[in-house]
Specification:
Elements (H helix, E strand, L loop, with lengths): L5 E6 L2 E6 L10 H16 L5 E6 L3 E3 L16 H18 L4 E5 L2 E3 L1 H7 L3 E5 L3 E3 L13 H9 L1 H10 L3 E2 H7 L4 E3 L4 H13 L3 H13 L5 H15 L3 H11 L10
Parallel strand pairs: 2-3, 3-5, 4-6, 5-7, 6-8, 7-10
Antiparallel strand pairs: 1-2, 8-9
Bound molecules: ligand LHQ.
The site of ligand LHQ has 24 residues, from helix 2 and strand 6.
């Protein structure tokens, strides 16, 4: 599929969605939203896929909303509508994809760019990357799920400081705070991202999907509900070929060959 603002390719069970407006630090305009949505349509329809990479070209990961296209002199803009039309559906789709998602933050992430990364299952970042909740600098509230993820992931004190002060957070600090999975030395970034992707694409896809759904559901469930969800998920996972293969491989003392079925 050919796009203008993103690069999208599929192969070996992996979909790669690469934001491609490096001169704007990959800020989102309407075309990019539409193209990302079309790529996710293709991902959802392709049953051969077992992992998704979200990454970006150039020195930035994503600077959030493209502010250069905003005409702030022509009367009030309906930013609620922008989030409802573009960002909210994107966050919900990323979270509910049935394959594991890996976000590789190779440079600065700002505003909605941070919060879209947080909608992915695993986030890694170059040590040189940084994260900025840029909203306070332009009088806005963290959107694209930011106000939902931040207190849950890093606690209220850090969420408030990070948001209200607008200070940038280094990748190492983001890792220490639990905002991301891992900060990776720049020299090893690409190879570690590829290794993680290969691991995810070779994993028991349905089991991983059930696991991520259960972990995400925990925030809204009681212990009773969560225990029941685990039982229901285990029932489903226990019927997969990958469960059978995992147990057989264990008994035969060999590496498992998972197929995602
Ligand atoms: C940009 C941008 C950008 C356009 C850098 N747009 N060009 C949702 C719904 C509705 C409404 C509003 O918002 C949202 C969600 C949001 O995401 S709101 C938050 C929007 N984002 C920001 O406020 C971040 C603005 N950018 C920055 O603060 C800085 O650029 C960061 C900290 C990201 C990077 O700083 P530097 O490394 O010093 O780079 P730079 O500022 O020099 O930027 C490089 C180029 O990228 C520059 O263009 P130029 O032609 O001068 O080289 C910037 O204009 C452009 N750029 N962000 N969001």
């Amino acid at each position: 599929m050919e796009f203008e603002t993103i690069h999208f390719e599929r192969g070996n069970g992996i979909a790669r969605l690469i934001l491609n407006r490096p001169e704007k630090l990959n800020a989102f305009n309407v075309l990019m939203h539409r193209e990302v949505a079309a790529a996710l349509d293709a991902v959802e329809a392709d049953e051969s896929l077992r992992a998704l990479l979200l990454a970006a070209r150039g020195r930035g990961f994503c600077a959030g909303q493209d502010l250069s296209e905003r005409n702030v002199d022509g009367g009030p803009l309906d930013l609620g509508e922008t989030t409802r039309t573009y960002y909210n559906p994107l966050v919900k789709r990323l979270v509910s994809l049935k394959i594991p998602t890996l976000c590789a933050v190779g440079g600065v992430a700002a505003g909605a760019g941070v919060n879209l990364a947080l909608a992915c299952d695993i986030v890694v970042a170059r040590v040189s990357a940084k994260f900025v909740q840029a909203f306070s600098s332009i009088g806005l509230v963290p959107d694209a799920g930011g106000s939902y993820w931040l207190p849950r992931m890093i606690g209220q004190a850090r969420a408030l400081g990070f948001t209200l002060l607008g200070h940038s957070l280094s990748a190492r600090q983001a890792e220490t705070w639990g905002l991301i999975w891992k900060a990776i030395d720049d020299d090893h970034f690409k190879e570690e991202v590829e290794a993680l992707l290969a691991q995810l694409a070779g994993a028991p896809t349905r089991g991983l999907n059930a696991a991520k759904s259960a972990i995400r559901a925990a925030a809204r469930n009681t212990l009773e509900q969560q225990l029941e969800l685990e039982s229901a998920s285990q029932f489903e996972c226990g019927r997969t070929q990958d469960y059978k293969e995992g147990v057989t491989a264990f008994k035969e003392r060999r590496p498992p060959r998972f197929t995602g079925r």
